[in-house]
Amino acid sequence: MTPEIIARINELAKKQRECGLNHQECAEQAKLRRIYIDNIKNQLRINLDCVKIVPESSPN
C-alpha cells in the first residue's frame, strides 16, 4: 500500500463529503478501497499464519 494510494483515497473521501463525486470518481474510489481492504486482509492472514497456539500448562 503506497502513500499515494492512501492520499488519493482521502482526497476522494473529502471531495465526496464536500461536493460529491462523478461516476468516474466513484468507480476509482471503489477500486482504491477494494485494494486497501484486500491489502489489510492479506496482512492479517500473514500475521495469523505466524501465530502458534501453545497449550496451557496445568498447575501441579
How many domains, in number, for the residues? 1
Shape annotation: rod-shaped
CATH class assignment: Mainly Alpha
DSSP helix fraction = over 70%
SS-derived structural category: mainly alpha
* SSE string: HH
Oligomeric category: single chain
What fraction of the residues are assigned to beta strands by DSSP? under 5%
Contiguous runs where pLDDT drops below 50 for at least 5 residues: none
Work out the number of β strands: 0
CATH topology, by name, is Helix Hairpins
Distance between the termini: 49 Å
The Rg value, from CA coordinates, equals: 19 Å
Q: State the CATH architecture.
A: Orthogonal Bundle
**Mean of residue pLDDT values:** 92
How would you sum up this structure, described in words?
The chain has a single domain, classed as Helix Hairpins (Orthogonal Bundle). Helices cover 72% and strands 0% of the residues. It has helices at residues 3-18, 23-49. α1 crosses α2 (23-49). The longest helix is centred in the middle third of the chain and has 27 residues, at 23-49. The model has no long low-confidence stretch (mean pLDDT 92).
